[in-house]
Structures are given as structure tokens and as C-alpha cells.
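hey can u check if this looks right to u? its 281 residues, i copy pasted from the old doc so theres a chance i mangled smth
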Amino acid sequence: MSQLIDGKTIARQIRKSIKEDVLALNMKHGLTPGLCVILVGDNPASQVYVRNKERACKEVGIHSSVIHMSERVTEKELLETIERLNQDDTIHGILVQLPLPDHINEDSVINAISAAKDVDGFHPINCGMLMTGQAQLEPCTPKGIIRLIEETGEDIAGKQAVVIGRSNIVGKPVALMLLQKHATVTIAHSRTKNLDKIAQSADILVVAIGKPGFIDSSFVKKGAVVIDVGTTRVNGSLKGDVIFEEVREKAGYITPVPGGVGPMTITMLMENTLIAAKRSL
């Protein structure tokens, strides 16, 4: 039976430290970190995510604001709003909640956010700095994944790591971050041949393929660290990419869904906002 990697508990501990740093920053420099989230349209899942971010900001003492725009907003109007926030000294982090309506180009929106305020870590400058190992603002979910792996006490250096998923949001950046921690990394995806055999080689298996229940115990090496990034809603419940009850009998460590990667993603957003505020000084 594997040990549970409790993202909620780990996130709570990190948020306590962030709260102390936010208070110290305010006491020393009179500066309160500010995060602005732009929500376009009325996507129910996006609304939940935004509310969770607001709660997290309140918990750690970060100033939070939300700009809710109509789904019919033009790309020009959205870009003008972002530019206004780029110039606002009280806002240190800007996040545009994805996905956006089809008539708005996501790349144009991400590129419009100041790299210094890009707390999602998606701007090409921050992506390039991640590639060279110089990133200050790392993507939140991959950053949280690394912290969860480190919390197991297992040394990442020298381990065989397999990342299933190649998205710009999770797969590619977490592979780079594992490389920087001196793991030997394989990136696989839904079209990879003999995927189960490749996954079986992993001491660290990160699954971000977006297919609920895709990974069973036949994919998992005994004693491996398994990080399940999947969050697909099935019949009203969140399901991971990993068949949890089956895989936990074989893995050494495993994250649950929900309660694993999710709480860490929002916590890393808080940490990135704090970092951006400190850098503004």
C-alpha cells in the first residue's frame, strides 16, 4: 500500500509561510502583493477556480481583485484591460482565466501580460527562462508537482522520470523542471507506442493526459512516485487519470484526486504573486 501525498496538508503548510512573508513585506516596505484575475464569460468551472483563488488570497493576505468580462468582449478590449493592469503599481500578478471564447486568441492575451506580472508562468519570456534554468516565475502546476515529489523525501536526482502529457501548461514545463533536478526524463503522450512499457520504467510517473482512469497498475513500477494531474468531471465528481485504488497497491507514493495537485497549484500562484511583488521593489 502506497503512502498518500496529501496536497491539502502540504499546501496549508506552505500558505502559512507565505502569509508570514506577506506580513513581513508589508511591515518592512508598506507593500501588499496584489493579484488581479480576469474572467471572461460564465464558464462554471472557471468561476469555481476564481473563487478558490480569491479565498487563497484572503487566507495569505494578498490583495485580490477580479475583473469579470462578458463573453462577447472583444480581443481589443481585453488587451486594453491587460495593458492598464500592466501599468498599475498595486497589481503584481495578472492572471487571465483560461479557456477563453473562440474569438479571442489565447497566445495574444498571454503575450500581452507583462512578463514581470505573469504569475502563471506562460509568457514566452518566462518559458524561455525556464528552458535556461533562470525562471523566477515558474508555471504553477509544474512547480507544485515538484514540491509534492520533494515532500516524499525521495531524491529526484538520478531517477527515471516519465511524464505522460506534452501540454505547454504541465507536460513540457514539468519535464524541464525534472531535468533541472537531475532526473532522466522521458516525455510520452497518447500516441506513444508501448506506453505501458515506457511508464513501467519510471521511478517518478507524472500523468497529465486528461483521460480519466487511463492509467492502471500495469503502467506502474512497484514503489514509484505517482503524480496524478488529471481533473475530469465525471457524473459530478472529479476523476484523475490514474485508477487510484488499484495503483495505490503498487506505487510507493501517490497523489489523490481531488486533494493532490489542485491545492498546490493555487498555493504556487500565491507564492508567485509574492515573488513578483518582491521583485517590483
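The longest strand covers residues 34-40.
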